[in-house]
């Protein structure tokens, strides 16, 4: 990988007037290698949101970013490397969603017992869901990249699959922390390992999100999340 401390060695000038029709203006902005990589990852994600992973090509990224083809090759040795970093960016976004659950708990009024726990879980799930509903194309892309990364793993590229595994490990950890905090705030204790409760119910929520992306039935999602909140709250007793 190129050192993040390096500065792009090339400043690209605007394309000549006789250049290819429809070509984008070429950027003259000097960025560090790390900044340029972040820019290209975001461009690739935007392209993939509109047209899927198949639309992510070196030429499309260069056009989106307004830079030369050579600069894209300079930053990423292969499309596989780019897709891995796209997946890593989406993992960070999912982590932000789960952190919103904890933030929602912190802002919620405190009430004791199972009813209070149920309310905190409901608030947290709704906070997570708001992220999904605000940008469904991004969430659809998350599934697409995850599936593609798993295919790369089966083809002998373990790094790609590891990114997907990390995505779920982060979610498990942060939802576990959310449930622990909710129990403490309401004076409840879990009747089975909280990690298992988080893992199982995240799997259910994952399925609900995918189903919503298919049929956009928001009422069904609301009912499904309510059932998840009930199931989670039922796994705790007063301390």
TrEMBL record:
Molecular function (Gene Ontology), one example: DNA-binding transcription factor activity
Pfam families named among the record's database cross-references: TetR_N
Claim: DNA-binding is one of the keywords in the record: yes
PROSITE patterns, sorted: HTH_TETR_2 (PS50977)
Extent of Low complexity compositional bias: 14-25
Disordered: region residues: 1-28
Keyword set includes DNA-binding: yes
Gene3D superfamilies the record matches: Tetracycline Repressor, domain 2
Annotated DNA-binding residue span(s): 57-76
Highest taxon of source: Bacteria
Residue ranges annotated for the HTH tetR-type domain, each copy included: 34-94
InterPro entries: Homeodomain-like_sf, HTH-type_TetR-like_transc_reg, HTH_TetR
Keywords: DNA-binding
Protein name per UniProt: Regulatory protein, tetR family
